[in-house]
């Protein structure tokens, strides 16, 4: 019998989600393709392609909120944990039965050689009975004597490889916040409260070397306590806080509206949440995911159900998903009270749901002395879908508003397309940082480094300004000096992590 389009869409949709889930857990085609050829699109695929030592799983991501009030509204009626969002580098640490350690970045890059001091720390932090694990945390530059945290730019001073412990000049502390794998068993389907308890009870804290993220447990009724905690985080130069649901909702009425303000957060991911944590027997075989069959059933259920306006928040670990069960609340962009008017000069093809648009977009300020434009930053934050669409139409690849690489733009990189400079955008930002990548204001505050914006955010098009009225590099330098007078900013090192300076 001929299958209907709807039925085919359901079948292929379920298969697509299953493969995506497998690849998020084990992003290795050498494992995925043979398993697909052998078992096909089947529930067993999640078991065959579960977590593996020294193959990084894609990290879970946090949804974006406007402010603390927005976060408290989203998590109404739920128990949650608030954690300091440290200004460091996210790290995924693998240790196998033989004691081999591999450290991965949030972008799945191997950075074991960058942190030999953390590798040497592993035998000291695991208690007796722990044979293998995968944990996640934030690597932060620290003053060993005082315990004071240092900014991300200080961390960037470390070389990327061939680091010798004896030559380490930038000390670090690993602040652990999650445990995804323990002694051959996946913990992804366990509630966050349980994963956190295992982490804190089975690993040994070493002050200023290995510790837990600072956290408090709260509910939406504890607004004053949460506000005080947020202030504590920003007072010590954290980016803000992460807020995580502790337990799976037992009451379906505690589901949360997933219709987010498009200016403040991306739409819900195309991939549905995979897990409904159920009581299942502990997996006996090494590496078998707990509840893998339930994962596959949930994929089918979600595909059939379609998308609803409200979605239950789970406290499970969902690789490669940006869900409202994790929320980030960053310090207010407006605390700087400063904005800057920049000129969009180029863009890259977007990824995922943004692949039809330009994202990120390259922005520059003016050098009034020689008439050039000096690139300041890339930006992907603050744009609505409607704006993205209009911007792509305006700067279409075969249109009159795109040009060959211009000689008057100072930038060492190569975007996918160059824009004809013709408009001015007002931008907010969290901080200004010295940068080895961007050339803006080079020579005005540093002979070797330019200036860049940290967490740039689009505010509006300045219809009242021509490009000749965009901000000058001297204005940017003045903002930096004012900021430095308040709290000195460390110089960036070799440029690693430069892409982390614009919000994702």
Topology:
Layout: H1 5-25, H2 29-39, H3 44-48, E1 61-64, H4 68-74, E2 80-85, E3 89-95, E4 101-105, H5 116-125, E5 133-141, H6 152-155, E6 172-182, E7 185-186, H7 192-202, E8 210-212, E9 215-218, H8 223-235, E10 240-245, E11 256-257, H9 292-305, E12 310-311, E13 322-330, E14 340-349, E15 358-366, E16 373-379, H10 385-394, E17 402-403, E18 409-410, E19 417-419, E20 425-428, E21 431-435, E22 450-454, E23 457-461, H11 473-486
Parallel strand pairs: 1-13, 6-8, 16-18
Antiparallel strand pairs: 2-9, 2-10, 3-4, 3-5, 5-6, 6-7, 10-13, 11-12, 14-15, 14-19, 14-20, 15-16, 17-19, 20-23, 21-22
How is this structure best described in words?
This is ATP-dependent DNA ligase family profile domain-containing protein. The chain is an alpha+beta fold. The protein contains 11 helices and 23 strands. Strands 14, 15, 16, 17, 18, 19, 20 and 23 form an 8-stranded mixed sheet that branches. Strands 3, 4, 5, 6, 7 and 8 form a 6-stranded mixed sheet that branches. It has a 5-stranded mixed sheet with strand order 1-13-10-2-9, covered by helices on one side. α1 runs antiparallel to α9. The longest helix is centred in the N-terminal third of the chain and has 21 residues, at 5-25. It is globular and about 65 Å long. It starts with a helix and ends in an 18-residue tail after the last helix.
Core attributes:
D-amino Acid Aminotransferase, Chain A, domain 1; 8-stranded mixed β-sheet; 6-stranded mixed β-sheet; 504 residues; OB fold (Dihydrolipoamide Acetyltransferase, E2P)
